[in-house]
Design a protein that fits this description.
heterodimer, A: 257 residues, alpha/beta, Rossmann fold, 2 domains, 6-stranded mixed β-sheet, 4-stranded antiparallel β-sheet, 9 helices, 10 strands, globular, B: 259 residues, mainly alpha, MetI-like fold, 81% helix, 0% strand, binds adenosine-5'-triphosphate, binds magnesium ion
C-alpha cells in the first residue's frame, strides 16, 4: 500500500503574475483512481508534474509514504498526451527501455515487453516501428512502457485526449482493466466529464485564477465496471446522469467563485 | 527475386541518361560536329585515363587530393561537431560563441584564398585550412539545429527514467539529432570537394586540381576533361557513402524505409 500526498502545494512559474496553483492538496493511495478536471489553464498539468517530481513546488510538500519527493522516480510512471515514445526504438524496445537502464538482460526484457504488449492488446506488434502504429496503438505502447517499471502510481496527463471517440472508449475500459488488476494508484488529467465519472474513484475539481482545488467528489462507477457491470449499463443508470450534472455544476461554481 | 530485379532496374534507370549523353557525345565528336579542341571524344578521355593510370600519375594525384579533402574534413568536421554539441547543450557556451560564429559565417570562405595564400603560401596547410573552414559551418549549424530540435518531451521522458546526463545524451539527444547531423554531413562533403578543387587549381604542386591546371598549360584538353569527370565521380562516391551510412543509422526513420 503506497500513499502519494500533495499537501498544500503552491507553484509559481517565474514569469507569471499569479501562481499556477495555490494551496492545493490531494492524495492518491494504491487502488485509487483520482481524476483531475477543470478548465484549461487551471493547473492540472502543473499538479501532475509536481506529483511526478518534474517540478518542485514553491511551498507545500509532495511525499510518497511520508518521504519527500525531489525528482522523478520509477515508483511514479508518467504517460503524456503525446505518446513521447522514442521513434528510434521499436515498440518492444520502448517498453523494455526502463528495464534496459536497470541492466535487465535482453531476453528477460523482451519477455516482459511481450507480456505487456498482450496486456494492452497489441500482441505481435513488438517489432513495429513507432511511425507504423496508429495514435491509439502508440498510446497503448506508452501505457505498456509506463507499466514496465512496475510503478506504484500511474500519472497520466490527458492520455486519451488525442484519440477519436471510439478508440477513446475502448482505452477507457482498458485503463480500468489494468487499474483493477494491478492495485496501482492512478492520477489522471482529463477534459472529458463522462470519462472522469466513468473512471474515477475520486474526482478533484480545480478552478483557475489562481489554480486551486475547489471540490473533491467520490465516485464509484469505475468500481462497478471492475466488478463486472458493463459500461452501457453504468451509463444508462440515472445516477450517472445525476452525477454528471453535479460535476458540471461544481466545475461551473468553481469558476464563478 | 522480382523485387531485387526491380530495385536493380530502379538504380539502372538513373544511368540511362548519362550513357545516352556519352554515346551522343562520342558520335558527335567522330562526325566532327564537336571540335576536338573544344571537347575531346569520350574515347580520347578514356585513352588519357588509361595512360595516366599506367604511369601511376593519376592514382597518386587522386590519393593526394583525397587525403587533403579528408584531413580537412576531419579537422573542420570535428571542430564543427564539437562546437555544435557544446552550443546545443549549454546556453552559456552558445551565448559565448554563437554570435561570433554567425558573423564569420557570412564571409564566403573562398574569399579568404588571397589571405590564406599570404599566410601559408601554397603549402598543405592552406588547403587544409580552407577545406576545414568550409566544412565547419554546415556541420556546426546542423548539429546545433539537430540538438535544439530534439522533442523536449522525449528529454522530459529521459528525466522521468532518471537518466544521468551522459545517458540522456547518448540515448535521447544524439539519436534525436542524428537526422539533422546527416544533412550537415552530406552538405559538408559537397563543400569539401568544391573547396579543394578551387584551392588546388589556384595553388598546389600536386593533386587533381594541379593535374588539370598543368594539362591546361600544355593544352591537353582530354586530361582537363578527365580531371573534371574524376572530381564528379569522387563527389558522387562520397555522397553515396554518406547516404549509405545515413540509411544504416536512421533505419527507424520513416524517410529511410526501403519501400
Ligand atoms: N512552464 C511554464 N512556465 C510558465 N507558466 C506556465 C508553465 N506551465 C504552465 N504555466 C502556466 O500555469 C498555469 C497552469 O498551467 P497548466 O499547464 O498546469 O494548466 P492545465 O490545467 O494543465 O491546462 P490545460 O487543460 O490547457 O492543459 C497557466 O496559466 C499556464 O500559463
Ligand atoms: Mg495540461
Amino acid at each position: 500500500m503506497a500513499h502519494l500526498v500533495l499537501d498544500h502545494i503552491s507553484v509559481h512559474y517565474g514569469n507569471q503574475a499569479q501562481p499556477a496553483v495555490t494551496q492545493a492538496s490531494l492524495s492518491v493511495n494504491s487502488g485509487d483512481f483520482v481524476v483531475l478536471v477543470g478548465r484549461s489553464g487551471c493547473g492540472k498539468t502543473t499538479l501532475l508534474n509536481a506529483a511526478a517530481g518534474l517540478i518542485a513546488p514553491n511551498s507545500g510538500s509532495v511525499t510518497v509514504d511520508g518521504k519527500q519527493i525531489k525528482a522523478p522516480g520509477a515508483d511514479r510512471a508518467v504517460v503524456f498526451q503525446n505518446d513521447a515514445l522514442f521513434p528510434w526504438l521499436n515498440a518492444r524496445e520502448n517498453i523494455g527501455f526502463a528495464l534496459k537502464l536497470r541492466g535487465v538482460a535482453a531476453k528477460e526484457r523482451d519477455a516482459a515487453a511481450d507480456r505487456l504488449l498482450a496486456l494492452v492488446k497489441l500482441e505481435g506488434f513488438g517489432s513495429k516501428a513507432i511511425w507504423e502504429l496508429s495514435g491509439g496503438m502508440r498510446q497503448r505502447v506508452g501505457l505498456a512502457r509506463a507499466l514496465a517499471a512496475e510503478p506504484d502510481f500511474l500519472l497520466m496527463d490527458e492520455p486519451l485526449g488525442a484519440l477519436d471517440a471510439l478508440t477513446r472508449e475502448r482505452m477507457q475500459t482498458l485503463l480500468l482493466d489494468i487499474w483493477a488488476a494491478n492495485n496501482i494508484g492512478v492520477l489522471m488529467v482529463t477534459h472529458g466529464i463522462d470519462e472522469a465519472l466513468l473512471l474515477a474513484t475520486r474526482i478533484v475539481v480545480l478552478a483557475p485564477g489562481p489554480g486551486r482545488v475547489v471540490r473533491q467528489i467520490d465516485a464509484g462507477f469505475g468500481r462497478r465496471y471492475a466488478s463486472g457491470e458493463t459500461v452501457r449499463s453504468i451509463k444508462a443508470d440515472p445516477a450517472f446522469n445525476q452525477a454528471r450534472a453535479e460535476l458540471e455544476d461544481s466545475i461551473f461554481e468553481g469558476e464563478a467563485a | 527475386m522480382s523485387r531485387a530485379l526491380q530495385s536493380i532496374g530502379r538504380s539502372a534507370i538513373g544511368w540511362l541518361l548519362p550513357a545516352l549523353l556519352l554515346a551522343g557525345w562520342e558520335i558527335a565528336s567522330r562526325a566532327g560536329v564537336i571540335s576536338a579542341n573544344v571537347l575531346p571524344a569520350p574515347s580520347a578521355v578514356g585513352a588519357a585515363f588509361w595512360k595516366l593510370l599506367l604511369s601511376g600519375e593519376l592514382l597518386e594525384n587522386i590519393r593526394i587530393s583525397t587525403l587533403r579533402a579528408l584531413s580537412g574534413f576531419v579537422v573542420g568536421g570535428a571542430i564543427g561537431f564539437g562546437l555544435g554539441l557544446a552550443n546545443g547543450l549549454s546556453a552559456l557556451s552558445r551565448g559565448l560563441t554563437d554570435t561570433t560564429i554567425q558573423m564569420i559565417r557570412n564571409i564566403p570562405h573562398l574569399a579568404l584564398i588571397p589571405l590564406v595564400i599570404l599566410w601559408f603560401g601554397i603549402d598543405e596547410e592552406a588547403k587544409l585550412f580552407l577545406v576545414a573552414l568550409g566544412v565547419f559551418f554546415p556541420i556546426y549549424i546542423n548539429t546545433l539545429l539537430g540538438i535544439q530540435g530534439v522533442d523536449p518531451q522525449l528529454v522530459e521522458m529521459g528525466r522521468i527514467y532518471g537518466m544521468s546526463r551522459s545517458q540522456l545524451f547518448i540515448r535521447v539527444i544524439l539519436p534525436g539529432a542524428l537526422p539533422s547531423i546527416f544533412v550537415g554531413l552530406r552538405y559538408a562533403l559537397g563543400i569539401m570537394w568544391l573547396t579543394l578543387i578551387v584551392a588546388e587549381t589556384i595553388s598546389a604542386s600536386s593533386g587533381l586540381g594541379y593535374m588539370a591546371m598543368q594539362a591546361r598549360e600544355f593544352l591537353l584538353i582530354d586530361v582537363v576533361v578527365l580531371s573534371i569527370l574524376i572530381y564528379a565521380l569522387l563527389g558522387k562516391l562520397a555522397d553515396s557513402l554518406a547516404r549509405y551510412l545515413e540509411r544504416l543509422s536512421l533505419q527507424w526513420h520513416p524517410a529511410f524505409q526501403n519501400v
